[in-house]
Amino acid sequence: MPEIRPFRGVLYDTSRVRIEEVVTPPYDVISDREKEFYKSLNPYNMVYLLLEPDYPKAAERFRRWLREGVLKQDDRPAIYIYRQEFPHGGRKIARLGFIARMRIADGDELMPHENTFEGPKMDRLRLLQHVGANLSPIFSVFDDPQNHVENLLREVIRDEKPRVDVLIEGVTHQMWSVDEKVVIGKVAEKLSRSYAFIADGHHRYESARIYRDLMRSKLPRYSGEEPFNFVMSYFVSVSDEGLIILPTHRVLVGADSKEIRRRIEKFFESEVVRDLDEMFERMRERAGEKSPPIGLYDGERFRVLVLRDSSTLSGSVPEMLRDLDVTVLHALLIPSGGDLRFTRDPLEVLRSVRATPSSFGFFLNPIDPGKVREVALAGERMPHKSTYFYPKPLSGLVINKHD
Questions:
Q1: pLDDT tens digits for range 56-102
Q2: H or E element: which one contains 389?
Q3: Mean pLDDT score of the chain, rounded to an integer?
């Protein structure tokens, strides 16, 4: 049950910079090529903080931007209403949420649904230790079946001009700040009676928790109200129609081809299809079956794989996860320690497989948000990068500074 608080956000001064030149997606979806592109847009672009490998340099740069007035901190604590409008499935969809500080839980009260890796956690921890700020929000989903929070947010912004209104790569991003205590109190009260789970930002959340524990251990007088007890989070209702999950496909590089083919023969029915389009069509058609379909490209043929016997997973995979294609894939086809690469672009999978010997491309269907909710409530975790919530909240719209 999340506890939220308003905060004095740090925002770019739009009289000094064009917002579309300085904001970015979250750090972990920015490729090396995209990083260089963002750096070329503006010397104050957020990648100079998010992806600076020299953590002291990132901290000094952040402080300098504040001194120069490129970044300015709001005078009053607020929550920040965030609306995104984007095309999907042939129509325009809008998603409405808000950004606030959230108390970091001692256990798994804020329920994760994906596994994490030590390297990215330590990277984000060191950046947080030096910069002393949440540069981008984690993405949390809460339960609000009657849409009380969404209706309240819509009423608040109905006649208000947004502080940010920008179109980036087909997505319109709008943000308002709300400092009225009554409104904030109503939102906080609703959230306190709801559950929440992490949709995106597992590494950043766990890094924030480690940072909280380290800071807490250094204080002889700990109150629980110190800024490091909170992390900036973007909240969206699980019933919001704009809560879209896209699949993340996999490329297994340098695999033991004979072993992969042996596993396919042993565990799966295999249907050869003509091309990528037919493969996805068959995957959609079979998505409701007990055993989930998995697309495969081995450099020569496209196939749709379906597990022969669902009981194959009974001894190794929790029942809640057995109907997920990503779980079946990682449990039976991808060897531990394999060189695994992730992409949302099916054509990139094809290019990678064709360019690299002994490679296999695996294609997945999107996961329903309701299934993610079930997994989180059950206390289970999916494999890394099982979900890609779209569109991502921007980094740099608002920053939560700890001091």
A1: 999 999 999 999 999 999 999 999 999 999 998 889 999 999 999 99
A2: strand 388-390
A3: 91
115 versus 39: which is more confidently predicted? 39
Residue range 267-302, pLDDT digits in tens: 999 999 999 999 999 999 998 788 899 999 999 999
Among positive and negative, which fits the CA dihedral 261, 262, 265, 268?
Answer: negative
Q: How far apart are CA 238 and CA 245, in angstroms?
A: 12
Domain spans of the chain?
4-245+390-401, 248-365
Radius of gyration of the chain (CA): 22
CA distance 195 to 240: 15
Strand partners, 142: 196, 237
State how far the Cα of 303 lies from the Cα of 239, in Å rounded to an integer.
34
Q: DSSP assignment, residue 255?
A: -
Nearest Cα to Cα of residue 395 among 170, 135, 200: 135
Amino acid at the residue 385 = K
Helices and strands (DSSP H and E) totals, the chain: 12, 20
Three-state DSSP class for 392? coil
Q: What are phi and psi of 57, to 5 degrees?
A: -65, -40
